[in-house]
Amino acid sequence: MLKLPNLLAAALLSLGLAATASAQQALEKTDIRYQGWAGQVTWLELAEELGYLAPLKAKWVGNTTSGPQDIQTVVTGDVDIGGAFNGAVVKLLAKKAPIKAVLGYYGADENTYSGYYVKDDSPIKSARDLVGKKIAVNTLGAHHEFMVREYLERSKVSDVEARQVTLVATPPVTGEQALRQGHVDVTTLGGVLRDKALERGGIRALFTDRGLYGDFTAGTLVLHTKFIEQNPNTTRHLVSALARSIEWARNTPPAEVRARFVKVIESRKRAESADTIQYWKSTGVAGTGGVIKDGELQIWIDWLVKDGLLKPGQVKPADLYTNAFNPYFKNAEKVAASK
After folding, report:
1. Is-contact 289 249, C-beta < 8 A?
2. CA angle 256, 61, 246 (to 5 degrees)
3. CA-to-CA separations, 96 to 36, 99, 314, in angstroms, rounded
4. What three-state secondary structure class fits 60?
5. How distant, in Å, are the alpha carbons of 51, 139, 243, 271 from that of 102?
6. Which of 194, 213, 232 is the last residue in one of the domains?
7. Domain check: are 183 and 264 in the same one?
8. Bridge-based pairing state of the strands 31-36 and 57-63
9. Is the pLDDT of residue 30 over 90?
10. Total-model pTM
11. Alpha-carbon distance 157 to 163, whole Å?
């Protein structure tokens, strides 16, 4: 039997003790309201399936339409937790919204990323060829739009030319069809929708978000500041359960993760298909347990400064999030200190 290095063993033990201690504390609130995604499994649902969430209970209130909509419902108090692209989170927080980012929950790696695709016979070969063209994105002002803008800027496309690139809000499930039927010149595809489209052939990638930034965590889960203040024990247990579920998925064979996802989808009985789960490959989360880093938010702060929506120095990343409830953050500090 292999022996774990002392440091790793200590870290695992520390996590186990932290989780146990959290479960033993009196929880101020037990029902966690959230929005889901059709045909997909959230970290909250996985945490409940794995037994990490108990004694908390996940209470589904419906499916969200986008990340910005999801975090808006946290602000209005209709749900307790929601997640979105970091750019959308920064924009909302910059408006003094009473929310705090507590965990990174999706991103890009070698298996999980969003790409911008054209038909094989398309004349579009570079960023400058996008001038005067239409690009399908899931929603405006979020991840897909920012990646297009970053691609154009890095390619030295002027602001005047960039304004001639039209972004068309298109539901992800119809993005491939919109491209093939000629309604748009470029479409954004990620995850299972990307893999299924590539299987059918006839399209090629123009660029990808991972190609721009490498492996990175792109979105965070947020809680209302009042929720955190009034429910500190619940918050700690909730974030710990979510972080543990992310780490479980990062370190478990994909086939086993997919099997769990299918089980969750079938058990919740929402008249939806689990077919796309077969294409799941990885979490895309760069930080251990979803630990948040300044740079993951600074990127989008810089963009808002460029757009004139923020003044330089008006917002600092550390003001927008906290890792205080994530048990993996303290262990990450110990590992860094030991090197």
Report:
1. no
2. 30
3. 26, 8, 12
4. strand
5. 21, 23, 10, 32
6. 213
7. no
8. parallel
9. yes
10. 0.81
11. 10
Per DSSP, 142 falls in state S
Q: What does the alpha-carbon distance between residue 185 and residue 276 come to, in Å, rounded to a whole number?
A: 25
Tell me: cis bond preceding 172? Omega within 30 of 0 counts. Answer: no
The range of the structural domain enclosing residue 316 comes to 22-108+215-338
Number of helices (H) and strands (E) in the chain: give both, helices first. 14, 10
Please list, in sequence order, all residues whose beta carbon lies within 8 angstroms of the beta carbon of residue 287, skipping any fewer than 6 positions away. Answer: 104, 217, 293, 328
The DSSP code sequence of 89-128 is HHHHHHTT-SEEEEEEEEEE-SSS-EEEEEETT-S--SGG
70 and 132 assigned to the same domain = no
Residue 136's nearest CA partner among 198, 70, 206, 36 is 206
Look at residue 317 and give its three-state secondary structure. Answer: helix
Say which residue the tokens 């499994």 belong to: 41
Q: Cα separation of 23 and 241, whole Å?
A: 10
Domain final residue pick, 185, 213, 241: 213
Asked whether the beta carbons of 53 and 111 are under 8 A apart, the reply is: no
Give me the residues paired with residue 101 across strands.
Answer: 222, 321
> Rounded to 5 degrees, what are φ and ψ at 291?
-60, 135
What is the tally of structural domains in the chain? 2
Considering only 94-98, 165-169, 240-244, 288-292, which range has the smallest mean pLDDT? Answer: 94-98
Average pLDDT over residues 227-255: 97
Measure the CA–CA gap between 238 and 29, rounded to whole angstroms. 10
Residue 39 is encoded by which pair of tokens?
A: 């045909």
| 186-190 and 114-119 beta bridge pairing | antiparallel
pLDDT beyond 50 at 21: no
CA distance 42 to 30: 18
